[in-house]
## 1
Amino acid sequence: MGYYPQIMVIHNLDDICHEMEVFGITHKYQAAEAPKSLTATLKIENLSPKKAKTIADSAKAAKTSAYLKTNGRQTDSQLLIIGSLDKLCRLAAQLAGSASQAALGKQIKAALDNYNRRDFNLHGDAYTLNLSQRTHIMGVLNVTPDSFSDGGKYLEPDKAIVHAKELVAEGADIIDIGGESSRPGSEPISAAEELARILPVLQGLIAEIPVPISIDTYKAQVAEAALRLGAHMINDISGLRFDPDMAPLIAKYKVPVIIMHIKGTPQNMQQNPTYKSLMGEITEYLQQGITLACTAGINPEQIIIDPGIGFGKTVKHNLQIINRLSALKCLGKPIMVGTSRKSFIGQVLDLPPERRQAGTAASVSCAILNGAHIVRVHDVAGMAQVARLTDAIRQAPIGNYE
């Protein structure tokens, strides 16, 4: 008797195409057959009962399984549609051909195309980051007196510069300099004070380290001064919402931007945050941020998204985001996740910030397996090892072929 039958869980089209390659199936047939092997579940929310029923009927006609939930209200119906990738694409085309459902059909088609996208690259004048090849490490450099984990340690420019160089030596691909704490309950500071903290550090690093430097700010005035000095990208915790001048400024300098989800502001975000649909609302917020960026002229290929772990979320919210991170792949952008030393780890493990390395490692590994391209961390050396091994596991073929 031969080996016991194997059931292979196919995570993406690359998996099944690799198996088909081994069996000598040509690329022409791979393109036709591979989408039949990948089953996806499509969730659509905030529909009227009538519209939900119409879409469910179309889904059944496309030979997918459709499940309808309605509470009787006019905009509260939900649909769960399950089918192979090719059948869901067929449904999207069918809806796109209908005058009343064309917009939804196009959205579904874009989400399906985006979900399987794997080619992400960031380009700057002096660097290229191939985010498809491996997970990249963003090293945190807080030049603040009050950050939750390392506030005050690197407030002096000389100490900050030395630490940044250490992070690069440990494996950081990007250094993220922040001059204003965004911990829960933190009070905002002026642009002048923020600049006084970050510019001496940026000036001391710009010609000294071989990796791009990101500036963690939501103020256009701060971003412009840093970009003028040579910073390479902007990490905006507000997702371009707090300062209307930020998006046009980034478009002007043609640099990448990280658009993060936040519910509220750092001052009030942890005051009983609630969601009707956690991943749905985060996805919608990020999609609106992408639209805002593109409308301002930012290159769509220079946009990174971040679900904002800890920014207006409970412990359960944060755990759910990491578990369901792959849902954000439908936006077609590289994903950054920052879990390092955060309070949800401390609450689950009952540990202070300085003892959360193992918890951070677990969250980083799970985030990578679920779709993260960049992880933002304090402990670069350890997390670089975690990322390297997790990448090796993630990229291992599902068969045992040489």
## 2
Amino acid sequence: MSHIQPFTINIKDAELNAIKSRLESVRYTNEISPRNEDMGLSVDYVKGLIEYWKNDYDWRKVEKKLNAIPQFQTKIDGQNIHFVHVKSDVEGATPLLLTHGWPASFIEYVDIIDQLVNPEEHGGKKEDAFHVVIPSVPGFAFSGPTEEPGWNRYRIAKAWGELMRRLGYDKYIAAGNDVGSLVSPEVGRFNKDHVLGVHVTQVFSFPSGNAGEIEKLSDEEKQQLQMLQWFEASLSGYQKLQQSKPQNIAHALADSPVAQLSWSSQLFGEAVDKEFILTNVMLYWLTNTGGSSARLYYEDAHAEVPTEPTTTPLGLSNFGFDFQSIRSFADRDHENIVFWKKHQEGGHFSAQMTPDLLIADLREFASIVR
């Protein structure tokens, strides 16, 4: 199937009732007292989310909201691909391909679509308008589960190039967060004649191990490296498991909505609202893609990695308490960085936490590379 067809979310009542039944019989774990935050999510935090899920969260309201946005599906390289596609009424608007991360989904960007498509209604200029394309990453939500190996960032990037070709976009910007910050530079690598520029919220460039490399860093960069080392030591357990044995956690994620909730919430934390957390969890649960989304980390860890730096114009917007991108390493892996901005505010989910800053940066970056 190479054609594109409309897509509507339609979850059966029986599936929603089954979730509610499971949530009514949760068995909670115990924890030590006083609680050690370094061990992970507290019982009280998880209980609070589950109570909200049972008593206040309204999937039908969310479903109606999402179905008001044009959604489609197509098959690329043997995999069903779900995507949002919203065109601006502004003639000459710039196509913008947005790729979400883990443990999020396409809804990461849903709340900023109107600002991107209709800038004049939100403090922008006519020339700031974008046509917006937001695909679900293969293995995530309605683009999953994946059923064959090999869906790493490079294969996804090639699929995104084909998707944009099918949509009739010859020139476009590729942007993303988290997984999207891994995929988008590769979209630029494989489709350099069509990608005007790549905008990311993290540049995942690390020390190479070469002698003297660390000593050459500025004092600020050394502080950023210390934060990366802290994250690696304290918060990267999910990443190591998903890179090595993703099927181990997949069994729990497929069987228990509470497992999916707690596994996802380790990165969501309290910085985003409960509805955003639970909608992402619901999308994974209802499509049984907790395991297949985790497999992306394994596929990436076992992929053949290009050795040449990217050359497509690259821009970074780094936010607050998030992965700290280090310019010295970024320049090694991307030889055409044209935009580099650090924000004190925000965090990992900038489209939710600091949308105005993200939108302003996307507009500024587009003005540079158009």
## 3
Amino acid sequence: MTLKQLEAFYWAATCSSFALAAERVHLSVSSLSKRIAELEASLGQVLFDRAGHRAALTEAGTRLVPLAGALLQQADLVHQAMGATAGLRGPCRLGVGELTALTWLPRLVAAIASAHPDLEVSVHVDVGAALAERLDKGELDVAVIAGPASRNALTSVPIAQAAFTWCASPAVAAGLAAMDANALQAHPLVSLPQGSGVTHLIDDWLRQASAQPARRLFCNHWGAIAGLLAHSGGIGLLPQGWARALFERGVLQELPSPVPLGLLDYALHHRRDDLRPLVGALREMAVREADFAVVGSVF
């Protein structure tokens, strides 16, 4: 029995497919299967039932998962303690939301390329719930998601906060004294769909301001929201850095509010059982590079 065999087994047992497990340990599927077969021969136990459409853990395989995980964690701790994180190579799968993608993602990718040029970086952009699910399945290595981890299999570390500003077109702003309940009776509220991190900020603000929008216009793209605010006669919020850039160009105007908007906390999420040096390196770079005030090229 070897650590490489245990590693192949562990990720095959905890990822959503053998193909994903093989990618994680930088093997072909056939090589992964061979190592698992060698481990089964060494232990004298069948670890996967291969009779069905998809291999399933046997009772022996289920018992081995936490034991293998503990051994691999100890091995990873040894590698980290001995400084074995330099020169990482292989696939590096990042998950981010649109706000991250349009602000500091380029800085993070550049930092990864500089520190670990042999890593093969791929980026998946999606909403937080979808990213968390893909992390849980082993399809991503890390993901930037608003708020702390909500799944038992995941953990997170805070990295940065995003600030937002109420805004509207100059024509709409000229007719408003402030961003308040009256403003939302006269103009539609333009926002991301319900369930996003930003809509929680809006809901908190509405509650504190005792306001209820007469109409709402939902849009799942920040760039489209900016365009709608400029031309649809609606009111909404934008990330502070983007909003200020648009204020300077005269496209939008800030709406002062007697009730302050809260900040949106973002964290780097990953699986609790994933102590690979890759995850530690990505965590350190994300903490260093995260900045939601950066104005993306789209603006």
## 4
Amino acid sequence: MLQDNFMSFQRFRYAKWAIALLVLCIALYVLDNPPIKPGGGTVLGYGLGTLGALLIVFLLLLGMRKRAYASRMGTLRGWLSAHVYLGLALAVVATLHCGFEFGWNIHTFAYALTMAVIISGIWGVVLYLHQPSLMSDRLDGRTLDQIAQDLRDLDDRCRLLAQDRPTLLALVEESSGAQIFSLRRQRLTGRNRHCATARVLARLRVVGDQADASSNEIYTLQFRRLQQLKRIRSYVRQRTLTEIWLLFHVPMSIALLVALTAHIVSVFFYW
């Protein structure tokens, strides 16, 4: 059974559209027999260029659609699916438009930016497919604040169990002060080698066979706490990678729009 996500939206509707578009463009390119060398200066070249420009504008509209919460122009998942598949199709359309001719000019620069944006977009797709919760800012259907409250509840239960045991209570307090990340760079790895909860679990494990019921329950609760921390760290790592991706993808998309405008203006100026 196919996993239900933006890639398989409505039985791959936009994948089929993109494939049909590519088949049409490639067929026209193969059958075209212009009086001059194939490229952007032929009738077909202008047609493919217009199509490519329209695709770029459509792809840029996703940013506006994401902020139009009350919009009735299709679901956000549908827009994202179309964004991905038509963005991939754009790579072929742009290449056919230029007729595989490149040089040191604004036209090739616009083409290079198009490819760079598409490649960075593929990176974003991989991130979202690997961690679907990034799309809803939730982890297992809950917000990070809700998960943080779960951690506080675990800490309170451990304190209650260790209230008459100073040694155990000190360990519980040490664990409750554990930071999700002790260093900023750990956001990229999703790990904290100096995690206080992990240290406390190791020390409770040493007590092991000599522990009473309260100690065993504290150990179980601390184990659950560590698992929650690991899940948060993994999620934050993915969020950090997504933020880094956006630092590349969004500015390059804006630069592409500027380069596309310059490309179009120069074409009509010298036409």
